[in-house]
Design brief:
The complex is a heterodimer of chains A (about 200) and B (about 90). By secondary structure, chain A is an all-alpha fold. Chain A has one domain: Four Helix Bundle (Hemerythrin (Met), subunit A) (Up-down Bundle), CATH 1.20.120. In chain A, about 80% of the residues lie in helices and about 0% in strands. Chain A is elongated and about 55 Å long. Chain B has one domain. Chain B has three helices and no strands. Chain B is flat. Classes of the chains: A mainly alpha (about 200), B mainly alpha (about 90). The interface between A and B is large, with 49 and 53 residues.
Chain lengths: ~200, ~90
């Protein structure tokens, strides 16, 4: 018995490190990172082959829309981090309020994105306007899809919070959702300067 | 290790830093968009902002090594590719 206990420890040693949320969400986040890394390869290959299109492209798109979406992504990420911190502190009520704030802020993202697309189309910028815009739509649409999944997930987590499903000791679902949203935020923080800042 | 109560001011600071860096990048982009050093600056900003989110919001300091490496590699990917494309710029 002692031999078995020594060979197969019941728990991983503390030095192995913490897994925020659960393993499942990190499989999903790894897939998300691989998917966007491939899209960044597409961006840089296109940028290398069509440097002029990528120098002039950012001047045509709605920079204000991109900036507002950056503020919304960063702010909702901050709110969801506060929701996790409040839950850990033993304040589920406050955690729920932070989560509501995170959802409301995050919902602004697809709204502004739709306004941006509307603005683009009014200025003749569609997916066939040039290689820069094709890659821009390809990457930003994909990001919006990932953000919408995140918003749906936040709605689910809020519903679970309303049923008192999370406690200060056990809130893996909340932390998994927060991890996904932070990962989606990290991706946007790379997309934003590549399309809206760098000329 | 910091408690959850101690982490909230840190979250607020990280949020302010992320917004400030976004504002700075927009101002520099509008003023020096075509400068040759812009890709270097933008690469640095992407990396710093990604690391702030990972370190503060995701608390990556005490995270599992696989997740830590995953974050480090992904956050460095776009900045390194940007530096490479700037070096190969025709």
């Amino acid at each position: 018995m002692m031999m078995e206990a020594a060979t197969f420890p019941a728990q991983a040693p503390a030095a192995a490190g913490r897994i925020p949320g659960n393993k499942g969400i990190w499989v999903g986040i790894t897939c998300e990172f691989v998917e966007f890394a491939l899209m960044f390869v597409v961006y840089f290959v296109a940028r290398y082959n069509y440097p002029d299109a990528f120098r002039s492209g950012p001047e045509q798109i709605w920079t204000t829309g991109g900036a507002i979406n950056t503020v919304l992504m960063v702010t909702s990420s901050f709110f969801i981090a506060c929701a996790v911190a409040s839950m850990k502190q033993g304040n589920p009520q406050r955690s729920r309020l932070w989560m509501v704030a995170a959802i409301v802020t995050a919902l602004g993202y697809p709204v502004v994105k739709l306004l941006e697309i509307d603005w683009n189309l009014a200025h003749g910028i569609d997916g066939r306007a040039g290689i820069f815009y094709t890659v821009y739509y390809y990457l930003t649409f994909n990001h919006m899809v990932h953000a919408c999944w995140g918003i749906l997930g936040m709605g689910w987590v809020l519903a679970r919070m309303s049923m008192n499903a999370y406690t200060p000791e056990q809130h893996d679902g909340l932390e998994a959702m927060a991890s996904y949203w932070h990962a989606t935020d990290i991706i946007w923080l790379a997309i934003f300067p590549l399309f809206y800042v760098l000329a | 290790m910091k408690t959850a109560a101690e982490k909230k001011p840190l979250h607020l600071q990280a949020w302010a830093v992320l917004l400030a860096l976004t504002g700075i990048s927009l101002l520099l982009g509008a003023s020096f968009g075509h400068a040759r050093w812009m890709p270097l600056l933008v690469a640095a900003l992407i990396w710093v902002k990604g690391m702030v989110v990972a370190r503060v919001f995701l608390e990556s300091r005490d995270i599992h090594p696989f997740i830590g490496w995953l974050l480090r590699i992904f956050i460095a990917f776009a900045p390194l590719a940007l530096l490479l494309s700037a070096a190969l710029d025709r």
